[in-house]
Amino acid sequence: MEPRNNVTHFVLLGLTQNPKEQKVLSIIFLFSYILTMVGNLLIVETVTVSKSLGSLMYTFLAGLSFMDASYASVISPKMISALFFGQKTISFQACMIQLFLEHFFGGSEIFLLLAMAYDRYVAICKPLHYLIIMRQWVCAVLLTVSWIGGFLHSLIQLISIYGLTFCGPNVIDHFLCDMFPLLKLVCPDTYVIGLLVIANGGMICSIVFLLLLISYGVILHSLKNLSQEGRRKALSTCGSHITVVVFFFVPCIFMYARPARNFPIDKSFSVFFTIITPMLNPFIYTLRNSEMTNAMKKLWRRKFIQVVNKYVFLDEENNLAFMKYLIRTQKSTYI
User: N or C: which end of the chain has fewer CB within 10 A?
Assistant: First the structure.
């Protein structure tokens, strides 16, 4: 259904109107975006090529990293371009695409975090049945359901607003196209649509967040039955998951589980869960996970050897000494 409106494009006011602040922020967010892409894509590649990371937990982690990289790519390039070059306009269709993709990847991540919590519950609370319950096809089903859940959530958001009438102002006081800022520009009364947004976004965030808290509460309560080493590993893994969950869901609940109003602090919360959280997730998961850290070191060492063999000439004696050095360092990594 084609929307009935006189608006062909929107103007995104962004985070600030100060030119100097815009240049500084553009550099900061560009650096943040590069870190986000490098960190998340490195996790995806490490899990894909490393045979030592055979646990399904790492398959879920690779899926989460791919979602984070995609989610950041929907938001960051346009925002950085607007800050640095002053290109604040966005076409109506591009705005709708950004809205759809933003909620698609964000919604998929919500359901994936729930699947990851279930995986940890089975691994810690039912370790003897883990290989029976969490098979490869179960992992594939959970990943597929996460994507489908995100798609349905995003589709409902898009349908809710695409057919509405935009007949006047086209200035959005935000750095992205989102539901509440767009509803502010709609001509008809948006009370019912606002309730739908709360039900489709805020309620999902709140319910899933509550389920995650309950599941991790059960997991932490069961740690008393584990050995000291098992308790340490479980606490490290669950600590990373809980940190990511809090960083993602608290701003999400604040943004969508409330009446359809806009507040000045909305931009700060949006920056946190659209820019900061996808950047921090790789560090949260890798710094507290020795298996992931060792796998990354091994991957970088393999790539370094390939570069040396391809571009650096070494005679037979030096090449033998170089390989012995690499073998020694590889062994020391796992001691």
Answer: C
